[in-house]
Design brief:
Elements lengths: L17 E6 L4 E3 L5 E5 L9 E6 L4 E10 L2 E8 L8 E7 L9 E8 L10 E6 L4 E6 L5 E7 L3 E5 L5 H12 L11 H9 L1 H4 L4
Length: 203
């Protein structure tokens, strides 16, 4: 990908693919050399439905706010440790389950400048109970990151894509309830994966 996709900071964009391992129990993201890149101090959302993503120097990168709206989860992500809505970076909204294929959870990501939210800036398609996930740029078929769950999230971030942004997205996913399928087995996940061509146009 020639153009940088920067949402949090262009410094997190590098001209090569990056592998990141997320320990979903501890809320820690590790680099290829097992070095800690980012972490969440409070592993689960607080009573105020808020938690903060830090880099390894303890600098707050983004703050997550979570609320449930009509059985659809809504996350708002603000700059640094802010609680001011004017510092909104992006929001993540779950597509209504009745409009998705069984066994698939779909998320739309809207940047702060996308006021009408008629089209998403990014999309996430999650298979099964977080067995795997693909992140797309806008409503295009362009993939910017992938995840496989092997007891933790093994994330591949594509070149020139904001690593911190992708980690923030998967820190949201780790706390979501995606068990909306009748058969949460590998077979169910495989069936959902085969339906990818059908789902791309439904977001």
């Amino acid at each position: 990908m020639a153009d940088k996709i920067s949402v949090i900071n262009p410094l997190y964009c590098v001209p090569k693919s990056v592998s990141i391992q997320i320990n979903t129990e501890k809320g820690i993201a590790y680099g290829e050399k097992d070095d800690r890149l980012f972490y969440i101090d409070d592993t689960f959302f607080t009573l105020h439905d808020r938690h903060v993503l830090y880099d390894d120097s303890k600098k707050p990168i983004v703050t997550f706010y979570n609320k449930i709206m009509s059985l659809r989860e809504l996350f708002k992500v603000l700059k640094g440790g802010s609680n001011d809505s004017s510092d909104l970076l992006f929001s993540v909204k779950e597509v209504k389950k009745s409009s998705t294929i069984h066994g698939i959870t779909k998320l739309n990501v809207f940047l702060a400048g996308n006021k009408d939210e008629k089209k998403s800036d990014f999309r996430m398609i999650i298979y099964g109970n977080k067995h795997s996930c693909t992140v797309y740029a806008g409503e295009s078929p362009t993939v910017i990151a992938k995840m496989e769950n092997n007891g933790g999230f093994n994330v591949l971030v594509y070149p020139n894509v904001d690593n911190a942004f992708i980690v923030a997205l998967f820190m949201i996913v780790k706390d979501m309830d995606c068990s909306n399928e009748s058969n949460d087995s590998g077979q169910g996940s495989s069936t959902a994966t085969k339906m990818i061509s059908t789902t791309l146009l439904l977001a």
